[in-house]
User: Fold this.
Amino acid sequence: MQLIIFYVFAAVLLFAGAMVVSSRNPVHAAMFLVLAFFNGAALWLLAEAEFLGVALVLVYVGAVMVLFLFVVMMLDINVSSMRQGFARYLPIGIAVAAVMVLEMILVLGSDQINVVAATAGGETAVGSNIRAIGSVLYTVYLYPFELAAMILLLAIIAAILLTHRRRGGTKHQDPTAQAKVRAEDRVRLVQMQAVQRRQPSNNEAGAKE
Amino acid sequence: MSFMPDFALAAPEIWVAAMICIVLVADLFVPGKNSATSYYLTLLTLAVAAWLTIDAQWGAEAMTFSDMYIADSLGVVLKVAIYGLAALAFVYSRDSLIRNKLMMGEFFVLGLFAVLGMMVLSSANSLLTIYVGLEMFSLAMYALVAFNRNSGTSAEAALKYFVLGALSSGILLYGMSMVYGGTGSLDLGEIAAVAAADGDNILLLFGLAFLIVGVAFKFGAVPFHMWIPDVYQGAPTPVTLYLGTAPKVASVALFMRLIGDGLGAFADQWQTMLIVLVILSLAVGNIAALVQTNFKRLLAYSTVSHVGFILLGLMAGTEEGYAAGLFYAVTYGITAAGAFAMVMLLQRDGHEIGDISDLRGLFQRHGWSALVLLLLMFSMTGIPGTVGFYAKLLVIQAAVNVGHIWLAALAIVFSVIGGFYYLKVLKVAFFDKPEGELEMVAPGGYRAVLAGNGLAVLLLGLFPQALIAVCMAALA
Assistant:
């Protein structure tokens, strides 16, 4: 049963991956990438690596791909010019792909590197691996975790510093001023004489002419 | 196992992190001209951090945060040197930033972030902490180099620095991943234990090569120095001053923690790699500096050659060698700060000093500043009486004591070659005819600090024992 589920998700994943590189419309390509991410997440769930599956959906589908779609839509990429020279670069592309496949086979097939692989995924002492990560994130890894938070703060400050400019002529609201405003500031009461009907004098009549 | 870490041990880091947030908010809400509040708060932060560091960590040998943070004398010396050099950079920066209308509170916030990153690096006892500290410090520096948004050269320098810096971080991380794969641990103590037990672990050796490349990149050693001249020339001078001083000490920290502590057992292998770096740095740095006409670019190439000397000390792999490298980095930082401050002190015909020839007639116009320049250049050459002499002496002594006599001889030959361009600067400043308008634009306080800086180079040169003793004690 598990095997069948695996093959279904893997087949959809491969199909989506192929469509990402072959579809003509960049928005469609991005949507296929989302599909690929969802299937990848499902495969991770099958391998009992729930944290990676959840993170993939939250981070990549939820944040990165949305940004990606924004960029694709805003830049209005000319697809036909990107397609030029497809046949010319095909041999190099195939060669690179072949080298990568060969390298993967070598890595997976070798017994040179005995990295502790047993602890990745699967049952751990405390149950699910989300629980395992949760139990060490704020305890054993508290220091690097907090420092990573400082790095994010730094990145925000640096990004705003380098891109934010005060433009002239923009209209903005000042809530403090809005809240503080009094009736006297807005409405000016002017003391006026009640309207009187009067006879036009000779002078005014002369000016009109 | 108790998970409650000893927060008090890491008080300096916590203090600086908290003050970063306070400076950030204070800059926004406290009224005042030219971010004066941020400036004084920043200096206060560094002073208190120095007191906290010395008080809590000098002579200690303790770890906290699941052994990811180590507090020891070495960390104290590194951190206090970093505070001092950073404070010097901030003091020098203020006037130039105001003059060029670049004064924003974010300069100090980013500067403090870089300090925090370097502190984390100095106290790291885990590959993870080393990397996080390095990234924090690098990110802050990238942003600082691009600080002047209206300058094209500044943006170009920042982009080059960012791309090459990211690449070097990637290489370093790749090396770390192999070390982790080979030892199964991120803890430097455990890595050292595995390295000592398994002397020819091919995976560790492979990782070591990448680590050395990453460290050499951060130092700016040849052949990984390509970013140095462009970044030094393109960045705003206050940022160049900062970049050229404290980060050298941080690079020493990176080397001592990562290579010295972690992979000290592989000394035979990394010594060979470092010898290549030393020879190339000395040769390329000194020879390329001979043909420079731009003063900041000349100082950039001179930095490369000084990095060669620092690495020569570290190469020895002994306590004496580490202490010599540390001493060299600290004293070079003091000297280089003065040299870059010289650039900001003067203006020729209304613009900052660019070419060396802009200094002509300095002695006739402003005698005392020419004398300060004399002291700084003498120190960089390594003439006795200035601190540069002792720095070079200790480094060469350490190299001779481990049997690298020919390398020491080579270093002396190259420092003689290097003497030529330092003396060329002095010749222009002292003997060329004064012409045009050469005015001092910096206010009195700035001049006083610069004079003190020159005096410090002289006094440390006459009485170096105290600083040497501190550096030795840090390694003991």
